[in-house]
Amino acid sequence: MNIYRIAGLLSLYLLSSIISCKTTTYVINITAGDTTTQKLTLQQTDGSSADTIKVHEDDKVLWRIKTETVHKITDIDDKISMAQPTFITERKPHKRFFSRTWVEKVNRVVKAQFKDSGYVKEFYFIKWKPNGPDSAKTYDPLMQIYPRGY
């Protein structure tokens, strides 16, 4: 093999590695909050429901308040009642400084956790405060984490 062929194959390998490692940012818009049911209306940017969102390892998830019925998010965290911890992230979701947006980066998952379904269910809650005198409410959406390259 000559040096040019080796360099070409190496370049092709590196390019395919870069393309397969591309991360995606998922934006979840909070478009309404119901104080009676405690339900938030979560939508992806295309308008589809984000009550259950499908993401991959290394992806980023943003929650953005896009309604006047929700004053703020006070916490996004694991559902403590679950048998195993579910937030498989660098750190727990957190509020961006001087913003109404919360952010999370999904980490790599131990392959054994994917089991038969091919994904890990991440059970979490969003604690939110409506506008007005009502107390904080809690909503329980779901995130499905798929392996990179799925």
From TrEMBL:
Keywords for the protein's UniProt record, in alphabetical order: Signal
PROSITE patterns: PROKAR_LIPOPROTEIN
Signal peptide: 1-21
Protein name as annotated: Lipoprotein
